[in-house]
Amino acid sequence: MSVHEPTAVREPDPFRRGRWSPRVRWRLLPSWVRVVLVYAAARLVTTLFVLELARQQPGNAWTQAHPGLFAYSNLWDARWYAYIAAAGYPTELPLTDDGHVAENQWAFLPVYPGIVRVLTVVGVPWDVASVVIALAAGLGAALVFHRLMTRFLEPDQAMFAVVLFCVAPVAPIMQFGYAEALGFLWLAVALLLLVDRRYGWLAPVIVVWAFTRPGALAFALTLGLHWIVRWFTRARDPFPMRERVAAASVAVLAGIAGLAWPAIAWAATGDPGAYTDTELAWRSAYIGYVELVPFTPWFQAGDWWLGQPMGTIVPIVLVVSFGVALFTPWVRRLGVDLRLWLASYALYVLAVFFPQSSTFRILAPLFPIAGALAVPRSPWWRGGLVVVSLALQFGWLLIAWRIDGYDWTPP
């Protein structure tokens, strides 16, 4: 090279220069690490909300004034799980003064308290163990949900669906002494196995889920509808005999699993209505003691909350609106199987649940809908959804978790 020729100046590698920006570094992280970080950040925000409410909490039936984080995370139904772990289920149903079945342990399924009890055996206090199990199960659910969403959405959309799952209005339940987080985990696994058509692995998951949270009957309906769809589309999507038998078998198993707990309650107490009468005890404060007639509770609640004619009109409008939503482009992105689950679970809730303050928690298994809300990529849309979700989360804690002395709005 001539002494007069200028020395070439090496331009900085734009990739190396860009990799130090937070956005690029975030994208370079493995997806599972990003899910863990999203979940941890969401739970940190919720913890700040909970600590503030605990600081303001007066004494109540469960705790002293200004309880610690773990004690405050074990209010309401969390105490039923602790009681189940300590004393099991009654063989004789407790009765009210007027002879009706009173609230009791049979309304709560045994897997979650059984798992928490394992930790208490090795010396972990119940209040701590219940939260640890819920947090771990919630993280597992978020990781599986992300995998499920990648079957239908682009990577950034799937990750934002996880964000919405983690900051949802009832997301605090994933760090309280409730079985919901464990139920979310089994449901996410079951949906992923269904989408991937791994029918054999569904069997143990459904059985464990059926003894964790209600919902197996709704999943049985999903599986039945899945079988019908595959049958009618077999010309373009082959449905071999082996898969027909496997899908039908697991659908029947899900139905049996969904009915198993009422049968066990009957066998243990000698009362064929032990489970349903126990569940009905919780709505007696609203409408008294009534028989369970499928598809009437929402209209009973509408009449109680709104009177007539709105008590009839509003449930019908909600049902129609939800049905229409299932056919919108964003929801259709989730595929047939997830939409079948959304429809099946909504139908199940419509058939048996009496809407009151627990409605938002009971509707939480519809969480795959977060994938539809994650489709738009507008920063304003996404940022707005997160802000609104966190605001609703704090509102849910105020309304449903905080105890003000005369509270009749349990979570």
UniProtKB/TrEMBL annotation:
It is found in: Endoplasmic reticulum membrane. Keywords: Endoplasmic reticulum, Glycosyltransferase, GPI-anchor biosynthesis, Membrane, Transferase, Transmembrane, Transmembrane helix. It is a multi-pass membrane protein. Pathway: Glycolipid biosynthesis; glycosylphosphatidylinositol-anchor biosynthesis. The chain crosses the membrane at residues 32-51, 128-146, 158-179, 199-225, 245-268, 313-331, 338-354, 383-403. InterPro entries: PIG-V/Gpi18. This is Integral membrane protein. The lineage of its organism: Bacteria, Bacillati, Actinomycetota, Actinomycetes, Micrococcales.
